[in-house]
Amino acid sequence: MMLTKEYIKELKSKGNGAIGNLIKRFSDSSSLIFILENLGQLPEDFDGRFLLDLLSHKHSTVRLWAIKSIGKLGKEEYLPILKQIATNDSDTNVRREAVSSIGRMRTKMGQSILIEILQDNDPKIVCQAIRGLLVFKGESIIDDSLKPLVNHENEMVRTIIYKEYFAERINKNNQPHIESYDYLKNVVVNADTIETMKLLKDESIHLTFTSPPYYNARDYSIYPSYKAYLEFLANVFREVHRITKEGRFLIVNTSPIIIPRISRAHSSKRYPIPFDIHPYLIEMGWEFIDDIVWMKPEASVKNRIGGFQQHRKPLAYKPNSVTEYLMVYRKSTDKLLDWNIRQYDRQTVQDSKVPEGYETTNVWKIDPCFDKVHSAVFPVELCKRVIQYYSYKGDLIFDPFAGSGTVGKTAKSLGRYFFLTEKDKTYFDYMRSKKSKEMFDAIETKFLTLEEFKQTIK
Question: pLDDT per residue over 262-319, tens digit each?
Fold first, then answer.
């Protein structure tokens, strides 16, 4: 006999016992799973007693689908059994499904069981219990049971409770989400980025894409210590967080850096910048989203493997560094991405869709750029991808370390506005000189000192 969806549907219509008898004829897991998966909606008088025998089946997927079927019945008499599975089964997914089934029944007895399950050691089980209880949000016994979980050990549990009970619904900026201030559009300020950002209102920009200066690796970035360098970056990104609109993105391009040794009697020092700055960003309210690896051709990077190639002695292996990181963060919010997207009209969403040929992995193979004025230039292709993937047309794109202005140039070419800060006057003047070469000509660009910028703020 061949098992088909149609045959299962036919047996289900024949009344109590037919499906149970079918189950008894099969012992292999795949057949049992196929039957249970295709039961669909169950009639109120469905006899589900045969499902109880499957709750001890050795295959966890069989147990999972048996629980799903019991949940469809919605009979309170099964609650003690579901509780036992929810607390004792060896498989987390089976336990979660049991908790889900208890929640879907929406009964007082079920409430009591879910409140007990809040003490479970598995945060995934606790989160499922919370989901079932939030249906009754507003009832004092439920609220009193859930609110203390804002101090739970697990961050996911804390986040859910904070969002449901404690998140502020106040927008610090009355400006609509999709808009930005005219005095920030296509502006380059020759000043310290933190001083400049302090002049900006909360939630003024949509996206920040930047490559911070490397620690003591270039003439333009000298810091007294690595700790001082990290704290400087933390202060920058703290201000970026404040001026970023709710739920929008920060992409930081960094890589580990080598400080050369002063002599053969000393070792060089390698600093893992992207990994060391990460905890600072999380603590100040950025949510980590993705790590993208920018891969360059080996011929374009400094040769570190040369000595090892000559002798191949273990411990002395030093591979050529062909990658940098694009660390993707989102400003923490209790709103989903859909909320951000819904702020735009249909035409803007349509016009901003990423064209075919987009990258599907987190490894981007892009050749680096070289410039006679700036020693660390963003490739246009790198900027193009970030701006297309993380912003909409008309958005304001910010780079606090503008360098030669590639972020601004690319933002303009993609129908976005840009706001750039650059402390080094050589780079500032270089950007201004590029204006005559149509770098920023489509919409007038203002090149301002800090004092001049202050005069434009309204």
Answer: 556 556 678 899 999 999 999 999 999 999 999 988 888 888 788 888 899 898 888 8
Instruction: State percent of the chain over pLDDT 70.
Output: 91
**Cα 294 to Cα 250: distance, rounded to the nearest angstrom:** 16
Evaluate whether 394 touches 415 at the Cβ level (below 8 Å): yes
Q: What is the mean pLDDT of residues 315-325?
A: 87
Q: How far is CA 181 from CA 172, 190, 426, in A?
A: 15, 19, 28
Judge whether residue 372 has pLDDT over 60.
no
Nearest to 195 by CA among 243, 225, 229, 239: 239
How many CB atoms sit inside 10 A of residue 297's CB? 11
Judge contact between 429 and 450, C-beta under 8 A: no
pLDDT in tens, 381-397: 999 999 999 999 999 99
Nearest residue to 163 via CA among 190, 121, 134:
134
pLDDT digits (tens, 9 = 90+) for 105-150: 999 999 999 999 999 999 999 999 999 999 999 999 999 999 999 9
Which residue, among 245, 215, 234, 220, has the nearest Cα to 398 in the 3D structure? 245
User: Mapped to the 3 state alphabet, what secondary structure does the chain carry?
Assistant: CCCCHHHHHHHHHCCCCHHHHHHHCCCCHHHHHHHHHCCCCCCCCCCCHHHHHHCCCCCHHHHHHHHHHHHHHCCHHHHHHHHHHHHHCCCHHHHHHHHHHHHHHCCHHHHHHHHHHCCCCCHHHHHHHHHHHHHHCCCHHHHHHHHHHHHCCCHHHHHHHHHHHHCCCCCCCCCCCCCCCHHHCCEEEECCHHHHHCCCCCCCEEEEEECCCCCCCCCCCCCCCHHHHHHHHHHHHHHHHHHEEEEEEEEEEECCEEECCCCCCCCCEEECHHHHHHHHHHHCCEEEEEEEEEECCHHHCCCCCHHHHHHCCCCCCCCCCCEEEEEEEEECCCCCHHHHHHCCCHHHHHHCCCCCCCCCCCEEECCCECCCCCCCECCHHHHHHHHHHHCCCCCEEEECCCCCCHHHHHHHHCCCEEEEECCCHHHHHHHHHHHHHCCCCCCCCEEEEHHHHHHHCC
For residue 220, give both structure tokens: 């333009």
pLDDT band with cut points at 50, 70 and 90 for residue 378: confident
Kindly list the structural domains of the chain, giving each domain's residue range(s) and its CATH number in brackets, ordered by start. 5-166 (1.25.10.10), 182-456 (3.40.50.150)
